[in-house]
Structure formats: structure tokens, C-alpha cells
Design brief:
mainly alpha, 3 helices, flat
Length: 66
């Protein structure tokens, strides 16, 4: 996303992103609900995706003791 300089790229079907959003907002379980929520992050949705991925990675690392 950053390599192509698309700050608004949103991989809405990415399972990790879908789980991260549902974990933070339990009412947003369906992909259409999550897509509607991500509209508020325009034009920076690619950065929002990276923050969500990093948060998941940090959480997984902490669980492993790293």
C-alpha cells in the first residue's frame, strides 16, 4: 500500500483486520459494517490498516513473552 503511495488502500477482506476491528468494536461483525466504519478514516485507511496490523503483532508478541 505504501509502496504504491496509495494512502487510502483498504484491504477490507483481510482476516486479521476484520478480527481486529471486531475485537475493538464488537457491534461491527459483518464486513459491510466494518467497511462503513472505515469510511471515516478516509483518505488514510492504509495507515489505519498498518496500525491495526501492528497492534495485533504487538499483542501476539507479548503473549509469547517477546
Amino acid at each position: 500500500m505504501r509502496a504504491w503511495r496509495d494512502t487510502d488502500a483498504w484491504p477490507g477482506s483481510d482476516l486479521v483486520l476484520m478480527q481486529a476491528i471486531a475485537r475493538q468494536h464488537p457491534t461491527l461483525l459483518k464486513p459491510a459494517q466494518q467497511a462503513a466504519c472505515s469510511e471515516g478514516w478516509r483518505p488514510w485507511r492504509a495507515y489505519a490498516a498498518m496500525h491495526l496490523w501492528n497492534k495485533i503483532a504487538d499483542h501476539a508478541g507479548a503473549q509469547r513473552g517477546g
